[in-house]
Amino acid sequence: MSLENIRAERVKKLEILKAHGINPYPANLERTTTIGDLRSDFELAMKSEVTVAGRIMAIREHGGSAFIDIADGTGKIQGYLKTDELGDDAFKLFMDAVDIGDFVEISGMPTLTKRGEQSVLANSWRMLAKTLLPLPEKWHGLQDTEERLRKRYLDILFNEEVKDIFEKKSRFWDTMRSFLKSRGFLEVETPTLEVTTGGAEARPFKTHHNDFDLDVFLRISVGELWQKRLMAAGFPRTFEVGRAYRNEGSSPEHVQEFTNMEFYAAYMNFEDGKGLVTELYRTLALEIFGKTEFTTRGHTFDLGRDWETIDYVSTIHEMTGVDILSASEHDMKSALAKLKVEYTGDTKERLTDALWKHCRKQISGPAFLTNHPKLVAPLSKEHPDNPALTKTFQVILAGSEVGRAHAELNDPEDQRKRFEVQQELIAAGDEEAMMPEWEYVEMLEYGMPPTFGFGVGERLFAFLVDKPIREVQLFPLMKPR
Predict the structure, then answer these.
(1) CATH number at residue 291
(2) Rounded to whole angstroms, how far apart are CA atoms 151 and 146?
(3) Are 230 and 256 in contact (CB under 8 A)?
(4) Looking at the 3D structure of the chain, how many domains does it have?
């Protein structure tokens, strides 16, 4: 039967309910317990009548009786419907008007069947929401990836693994918040609409503020420049968990809208920050997954072992033969061509980044990538031993960046010069260069304490469950049909 015909049959059943004076979508519930609570102490529950509600996942007719499976999100239980308990009319109406997928309420005594299955022997039933479209076939569900993501509500309904992922993801962020709060961090909220997009290098989404008659941007970081203003304001430690937006391409690791966390700690040394990040990752791994060793994207890594420290410049030189501090743009392009690396943009910053990303794919981690050139870390302090480098690290797992930290630059004159370099890159057509934020420089002139900053996003969670990042988002953006 076609989908259109199935829907037409269900509409007829909807009319049957209405003809019997039944509202197929009532506003009130009479439920006395969740299914999960009922099953948790079923022996005690068998002493009194209950009313449960949920979606019908299966119907099995057997002569003058029927068995239904009802699920409410806390559990599933069998409903047992018999004519001598319900009455002929109520039983017939149920069989004539109810389908798999409908939401119903049943009242009756909890009982055990002859096979020992926990059930509710119904003496009444009520429609809570009549469905007009059929659920996917139980054992196959939605097979097409695009269809699964578009109809995520059905994907979760029929796939316990998917449901478990999102329950884990909720605990992931809860654990991160608890970890930081227990160490003196204050959770804050910063603007998502900005006049300039500070804190990262990415192409932003642009919109228009009608009241101010002003073009503004959706943020590309989770309040980096705002949180550092809070360091100047005297808050010792802050963090934010929130959405960021980048108008870039999609991949198993990249989406345009995602959740990130950034924290900032005044008076924290760079090496102490490394220790805190290591402890955070291990805590997340153990509390959410009960382990520290993971396999993802063809790499295996163990967060519980000592983390390697690797050098940005020397690693690229060892793997590609290019000294990025002295090489010309022509040399870099030639090397990328030999390596058959695709890249966008031909400024030295973009070429440097492309060379590093080629090398990164070969590193399983866990590792701290350190000593980034100034050009690719415009908000980090200069390295005391080499003015061409910065006090920056990235966490490398499974061939990718999964976290980034800075000894935050608080020299206003140095910051002004680096913003001027970024301004030149923008003028040269680099759409991912960082927009200068001159009011931020003004803040630095008032003074910001030595600060360690770190950010990590839901890519980390995707790596720990070994799924593409869209698979760990409840409702990723989909093109309209």
Answers:
(1) 3.30.930.10
(2) 9
(3) no
(4) 2
Do residues 407 and 348 make contact, with C-beta atoms less than 8 angstroms apart?
Answer: no
User: At which residue do the structure tokens 């690290």 appear?
Assistant: 393
What is the rounded CA–CA span in Å between residue 184 and residue 461? 24
Output the pLDDT for position 140: 57
131 and 159 share one domain:
no
Q: What angle do CA 23, 29, 34 make, to 5 degrees?
A: 135
Helices (H), 296-411: 312-320, 329-339, 348-360
* 251/381 same-domain check: yes
Same-domain status, 25 and 67: yes
Low-confidence ranges of the chain (pLDDT < 50): 139
Q: Of the residues 89, 106, 135, which one is the last residue of a structural domain?
A: 135
Q: CA-CA distance, 456 to 306, in Å (whole number)? A: 20
- Helix, strand, or coil here: 414? helix
Beta bridge partners of 77: 70
The residue segments making up the domain with residue 54 are 3-135
Q: Which amino acid is at 331?
A: D
Q: Is beta strand 214-218 parallel, antiparallel or unpaired with respect to 206-209?
A: antiparallel
Q: What is the pLDDT of residue 434?
A: 84
- Dist CA 396 CA 209 (whole Å): 38
Say if 377 falls within a structural domain. Answer: yes
Sequential DSSP letters for 218-250: E-SSSSHHHHHHHHHHT-SEEEEEEEEE-----
CA distance 64 to 61: 8
Please report the pLDDT score of residue 168 as a whole number: 98
Element containing residue 172 per DSSP (H, E) = helix 160-181
Say whether both 64 and 201 belong to one domain.
no
Q: Same domain for 50 and 158?
A: no
**In 340-383, which residue ranges form alpha helices assigned H by DSSP?**
348-360
The Cα 430–Cα 425 span in angstroms is 5
Structure tokens at 38: 């009922």
